[in-house]
């Protein structure tokens, strides 16, 4: 019953989406421009309105009437087909308009005839007629099924339930929950694979809630390959229950009313025998997935998803027949994941035929190049290419993917971003933006991507031609970014340009994490260390020309600071702590501090306060100093919160380890001048070697 009610409510909302799509400006303009007959489209809308008028009655009557339930199922399938058709029309309309704009922008107006391609779209009229015929047939059946407009007869039914539960609001059931889980998982040695555990009690005591808690327990989820939640009404119908269980497990509707056949199928069906009406498909991935495993998908032309389910097998091999023959034939696919197939080196050009595709995941594959046809996937919203190490370039027309929201290119070896990346104005996730030389997108294009959020790495900043372009990246306006990486590719001979670029790339003040690598300037800009910033973590790596550190001590939220490879820094002095003010506690939130590979560092001066007696690093837990061979003095005193100290390859360091009662880890290597007065009693991990 729950499935029926949810399905009916889904249809009501689904039809509303179809109405909106039919009335959209893009679709109407498309028919007008190509001089297509839009009368079938009007009839389609009228027919759907007739059907929609009796949906409420059908939703209720299908619970007791198999004929109405079959009608609703047929309607659901027809509605899916109608959506596919309207999506295809809207996609063609958008692509048509986009290509026209591209031609016009190239000053080829005269050679581009807006009606010259109309013949290739004439098949749309035929498809509309076919869809209309099917829906008109269903509309005529409404009188035969005695379906009334408006709400139908109200049945007194048991309230449907789902497997979802809000655990935070449940108290006092832990003992009962654990007892049932123990019964579920125990092996009684009888060899009986079926067990029934009744939960009895008065109405309202929480029997269903207890079952929901058990169903969603992680241990239970991991112990059973298949789980299904089926709501049983007061009318106990074995046939209906069996069909519902089968539908829940296979994600397809039962096409028979033979109870024995259904139950035999449940017992023996380990293959993918899909109904032609199946829309969503997931499978257990193996080390090698052969074509035969997926042959049944050819019969489900309306399939919308193709997803592996057991992610424990993270890599495998997929038959090339699946990639080149099967998948391009599934024209209704919305979701496609080929992630982890190590033998996937290329996608067929026919991937562009999947006009409805919204989600494409080919991460962790050996893909070397994406076909240009990917750029015709107008509806694509998510493209995942993470850890595709062989991928060195994106298609030239990426700017056509104007609906793209998420682009993950982390772990690839892209040389540069293609032109027109600024057209992707819906983009929310962009893991990296690689600057190339002439002929690629620059920082100006990045400025147009106003909705970026999460993490962004801007790489190869040495390729910036004009430092003024950095300001146009508008990083300060991208308020939803929380992590930023700014990275140069190597040595630079223009220190001033580097400084100007970094100065203009200042992010918004609530950035959480900042990483700067291979910066070629001699000084850091003023914004880096400004007290207005709430940065929590900073990494400064291989900025070998800078001779001083910014006043990081002024950052009120800074918890983690790592400086690595700053070869020109000789002295860490008062500037590191910030200008002293009354009661100011430099590095008041810092918990982890690391200095590493600083070949010229000689002195780390302690913080002194002549006013209020404030202490630096009041919350420091971890201090790590590695490979600073010229460092002679450091190790600030009075840091009683320290829990871990690592000093490695600091051969000239003359210092006494700070007294900190909470220290539990101590590692000293190649630092024979460091004095350890006493071993703190709480030390659990001690390593002293070659001192």
Automatic annotation (TrEMBL):
Keywords, comma-separated and alphabetical: Nucleotide-binding, Plant defense, Repeat
Q: Which GO terms describe its biological process?
A: defense response; response to other organism
R13L1/DRL21-like LRR repeat region domain: residues covered: 443-563
User: A GO molecular function for this record?
Assistant: ADP binding
Location of the NB-ARC domain: 175-259
Q: Does the keyword Repeat apply?
A: yes
Disease resistance N-terminal domain ranges (all copies):
10-97
What's the protein name?
Disease resistance RPP13-like protein 1
Q: What is the lineage of its organism?
A: Eukaryota, Viridiplantae, Streptophyta, Embryophyta, Tracheophyta
């Amino acid at each position: 019953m729950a499935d029926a009610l949810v399905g009916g409510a889904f249809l009501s909302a689904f039809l509303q989406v179809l109405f909106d799509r039919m009335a959209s400006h893009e679709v109407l303009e498309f028919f007008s421009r190509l001089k297509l007959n839009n009368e079938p489209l009007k009839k389609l809308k009228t027919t759907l309105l007739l059907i929609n008028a009796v949906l409420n009655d059908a939703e209720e009557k299908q619970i007791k009437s198999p004929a109405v339930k079959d009608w609703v199922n047929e309607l659901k399938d027809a509605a899916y087909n109608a959506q596919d058709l309207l999506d295809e029309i809207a996609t063609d309309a958008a692509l048509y308009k986009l290509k026209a704009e591209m031609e016009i922008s190239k000053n080829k107006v005269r050679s581009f005839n807006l009606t010259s391609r109309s013949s290739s779209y004439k098949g749309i009229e035929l498809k509309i007629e076919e869809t209309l015929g099917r829906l008109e047939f269903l509309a005529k059946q409404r009188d035969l099924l005695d379906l009334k407009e408006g709400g139908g007869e109200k049945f007194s039914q048991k309230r449907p339930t789902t497997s979802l539960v809000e655990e935070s609001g449940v108290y006092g059931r832990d003992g009962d929950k654990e007892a049932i889980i123990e019964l579920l998982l125990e092996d009684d040695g009888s060899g009986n694979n079926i067990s029934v555990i009744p939960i009895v009690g008065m109405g309202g005591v929480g029997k269903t809630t207890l079952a929901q808690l058990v169903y969603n327990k992680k241990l239970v989820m991991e112990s059973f390959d298949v789980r299904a939640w089926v709501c049983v009404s007061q009318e106990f119908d074995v046939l209906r229950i069996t069909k519902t269980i089968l539908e829940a497990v296979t994600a397809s509707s039962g096409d028979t009313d033979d109870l024995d056949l259904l139950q035999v199928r449940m017992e023996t069906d380990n293959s993918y025998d899909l109904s032609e009406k199946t829309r969503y498909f997931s499978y257990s991935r193996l080390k090698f997935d052969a074509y035969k495993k997926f042959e049944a998908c050819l019969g489900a032309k309306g399939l919308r998803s193709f997803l592996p389910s057991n992610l424990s097998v993270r890599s495998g091999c997929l038959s090339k027949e699946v990639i080149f023959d099967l998948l391009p034939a599934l024209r209704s696919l919305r979701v496609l994941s080929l992630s982890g197939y190590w033998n996937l080196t290329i996608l067929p050009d026919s991937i562009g035929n999947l006009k409805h595709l919204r989600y494409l995941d080919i991460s962790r594959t050996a893909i070397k190049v994406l076909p240009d046809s990917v750029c015709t996937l107008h509806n694509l919203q998510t493209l995942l290419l993470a850890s595709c190490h062989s991928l060195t370039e994106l298609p030239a027309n990426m700017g056509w993917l104007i609906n793209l929201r998420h682009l993950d290119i982390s772990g690839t070896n892209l040389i540069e971003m293609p032109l027109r990346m600024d057209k992707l104005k819906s983009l929310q996730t962009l893991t990296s933006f690689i600057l190339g030389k002439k002929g690629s997108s620059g920082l100006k294009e990045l400025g147009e991507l106003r909705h970026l959020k999460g993490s962004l790495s801007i790489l190869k900043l040495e390729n910036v031609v004009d430092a003024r372009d950095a300001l146009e990246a508008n990083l300060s306006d991208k308020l939803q970014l929380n992590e930023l990486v700014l990275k140069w590719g190597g040595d630079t001979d223009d220190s001033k340009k580097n400084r100007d670029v970094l100065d203009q790339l200042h992010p918004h003040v609530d950035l959480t994490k900042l990483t700067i690598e291979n910066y070629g300037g001699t000084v850091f800009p003023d914004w880096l260390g400004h007290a207005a910033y709430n940065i929590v973590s900073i990494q400064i790596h291989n900025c070998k020309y800078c001779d001083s550190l910014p006043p990081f001590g002024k950052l009120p939220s800074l918890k983690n600071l790592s400086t690595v490879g700053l070869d020109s820094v000789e002295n860490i002095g008062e500037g590191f702590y910030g200008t002293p003010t009354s009661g100011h506690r430099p590095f008041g939130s810092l918990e982890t501090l690391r200095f590493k590979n600083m070949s010229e560092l000689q002195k780390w001066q302690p913080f002194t306060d002549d006013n209020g007696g404030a202490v630096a690093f009041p919350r420091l837990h971890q201090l790590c100093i590695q490979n600073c061979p010229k460092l002679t003095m450091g190790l600030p005193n009075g840091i009683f919160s320290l829990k871990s100290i690592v000093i490695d390859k600091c051969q000239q360091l003359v210092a006494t380890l700070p007294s900190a009662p909470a220290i539990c880890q101590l590692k000293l290597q190649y630092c024979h001048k460091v004095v350890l007065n006493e071993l703190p009693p709480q030390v659990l991990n001690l390593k002293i070697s070659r001192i």
